Amino acid sequence: MRKILLFSLILFVAAIIHPMTTNAATEKVDLGKYPVQVIAKKNIELKDKNGTVIKKVAKGEKLLLTGIHDKQGIVKNSSKTAFLTLTDVHYDQLVDGSKVLTFDEVASKLKLISLMYPSLTNLQEIGQSVEGRSLYSIKLGTGKKEVLFDAAFHGREHMTTNVLMEMIGTYLKAYLNGTKIEKYDVKTILSEVSIVFVPMVNPDGVTLSQGGKVKTPMAKLRAMNGSSNFNRWKANINGVDLNRQFNVKWQLIKMTKPSYKEYKGKAPNTEPEALAMKRLIDRGNHLAYVSYHSSGQIIYWSRAKSHFERTKKLVKGVSSITGYKIMPVTTKNEPIAASEDYFTKVKDRPAMTVEIAPYAGEASVPLKRWNNVWKQNKTVALYVANEARKW
Known about the structure:
Layout: H1 2-17, E1 22-23, E2 28-30, E3 36-40, E4 44-47, E5 53-57, E6 62-69, E7 72-77, E8 80-85, E9 89-91, H2 103-116, E10 121-128, E11 134-140, E12 145-151, H3 159-177, E13 180-181, E14 184-185, H4 186-192, E15 193-198, H5 203-209, H6 218-225, H7 272-283, E16 286-294, E17 298-301, H8 308-322, E18 325-326, H9 339-347, E19 351-356, H10 370-377, H11 380-388
Parallel strand pairs: 12-15, 12-16, 16-19, 17-18
Antiparallel strand pairs: 1-10, 2-6, 3-6, 3-9, 4-5, 6-7, 7-8, 10-11, 11-15, 13-14, 17-19
Helix pairs in contact: 3-4, 7-9, 8-11
């Protein structure tokens, strides 16, 4: 009995010190306000809940997917609920980047494609936010090498989520169709280098900034915000800036108090969202890291010791694609306690922070900027992954 208790205690402590990611493909997903039009890959059958065939669907026919149950897609057939095998259909369009993407939509779409394309995607829950929203990473591709991209560290910067979700939807479709995106052969690249995406690091802050429902009392949030205008909110729901949470020169940041921006917290990695990203970086073997922020159309980067020339080349390449200005690496403008700094410190590999869109001030980037933002960034992840093939 004593040995059993000791072994149980060891497992418990190990779980605390090294928490495991969990597979995030769930058994039931209600797509709700975010149905997805799908197209039959071949002649398929729609069945009722008992498995009885109620309709045959021809190859190429379009259906509206309203949910997922037990890894089956749910569609409406007349007034009846019908089920189909998700691997028998393709999505037509995963997301519309020209519209606001909520946490609920992002989560449901990630779960959907992980079930539609299990051999090409790997969805993981890497942690949870303060209010219990799941933090997801999704790996796209079959390559053994990996690069890492994330978005929406800051609540109001949610257009960066649109960028990553459009990348996921566009790249996956090109891979399946065997087509190129500009000069990039997507299937060849993703067969050698997988891209790990974390589309929304700060779902609580994003939800608040978008005017969605949160659990934290509004009086407390208004006090931290100094206003009822939450469109400007950057922090997580505790009023901590997640990109001031990493243990790189953290002590140099002036201690303030919980706010809509720039509060570093009482110590590094106190916030679950920052801790989830730290653990993802720590246990991963990503060859490069790009963190998407907004706004300003500039690129910050850090000085990797062993791979400085490689980093410089990669940053110049992203700048050439986007047209964004490269900021010089100086003590004055180098980010402090940011995720990019942490990656460079612990991995000694290329990392950069990409600020999209013209400067928007204390607000989210207007949706009217979307078309140009997407045009500028469409191939960035493919470029980075393609460069990593050579390393």
